[in-house]
Amino acid sequence: MTRPERPRAWARPSEAPPGSGTATQVDLMRRLVAGQISGPRFAVDWFEARRQVLNDGERTREPFERVLLDVFYLLEDDYVIPVGLRGPGDLTDEQLTTKIRAALARLDAL
Q: Which residue intervals make up region (Disordered) (predicted)?
């Protein structure tokens, strides 16, 4: 009896097919850094792409996975989408962009 084929785990962004949630996450990161989308729009769309990743069973390998998890925790723990609800310890849009730029540098090194 043969087992169903498991989806391949991608090791770098270039391996994620266009339209996948993973490719969308990376594209959103690039768009934020390029100033094409706002911080709040990035966060909302990035979480939507993450849901797609989970629903479709997409997999990534370390260290690609670590970078995406770091972005997830950054958004989940340190970034408040409604600007009016941000406190003194929450990331500003500029700080978010700086951290995403660093995450992209890590991805580009893969």
A: 1-23
